[in-house]
Amino acid sequence: MRYLSLSLVIFLSISCLRFRVDNLKDEILFRIPLGQTSDTWEGVVVNQVLTNVPITVPVASNVVALADAKQSIIKLFDRNGRLEATIGNPDFKSIPGIPHYPFRFGSIGIVAITEDGDLVVQNRISSKGIEVPVGQENVYKSHSGVFSTSGTTVLPSFLVQISQKGVVKFMLGASGENSEPFRYMEALIPGEGEKLFVYHRIAEEMRLSYFEDGQLKGNIKEASLSVFKSPEAKEYDITLDKILPHPEGEYVLASFSYFSKKDKRFKFRRIYRYSFTNNEGVFMKEIQDPSEILFSIRSNNEFYIWETEDQGNSIRLQVHNSEGNHVNNKRLPFSPPRGQWRETYTDSDDNIYSVRIRAGALEVYRWI
């Protein structure tokens, strides 16, 4: 009887740990004023909605980087919202007392910051000499203000790795340094040190490419993933939801949705682990609720699954260990009004950030 009681205590202890919820607090890191002057962040309001806010705001220890696509420059702001420096357009009229480092970008797309503080900028190729069919949008001249994460438009571009003082480290193409351009880019994910992951398309196939110090180390091609050749592929239509690299480049987690071929309804979601050298996936987790989504990977090999709570007023991040077991929860309670809050995202150092638009400013918060 004594052993049974001890077993029960252990079981209850594990259950409490498994379903514990840690409520995180939001800590404001940056508050960038919105305005129409050169030393503010230019906000374009359409139908009372700010339309040109990037999905994620690149954060270094003491600066954020925001692209001003109209002037083809990048603005660096400190934690007090003061403009620290500008990088880009050689014809830009610099602000007295604010350093400007010239570089001729074509059209600025995604901007990220490496662990060492360098900027990685998607530099879209200039439209000069490119003929666009009548009636078709000239994507080469469009400003990067939509920040769409999906689409089929080909946007040839290079990645420029440049220091915060305008020193260009290298130009990166789809096959590495100084190679052919990326044709379409959907995500840019800095990893540990000089590691960089790019989710992009070659021909009609999406792939995740892994670079380090400007050299291509490997890639994972969507069509070659083993799940699409599994027996379940005969019964279900399988789509890739998301593919996320571990910051150290050891592996990725890929999330797939399974839909019935008969009625096209969602059936379940599965998460697999893949390496850059092996297309055979290791099963990690099956999810029945379509609203639960793979969110990010931590450097300690745990991963988060996103679950919306309280009609969107809070988010519960389910913490899973390296074997896929649900071990803990973290809640992100958004203070009202919820409509002020934008994207929530992480970086390679396991920080969780959220963007908020409030009282004429763009704010970046860290959850602690």
From TrEMBL:
- InterPro entries to which the protein is assigned, alphabetical: LIC12708-like
Highest taxon of source: Bacteria
Tell me the protein's name.
6-bladed beta-propeller
Origin organism of this chain?
Leptospira idonii
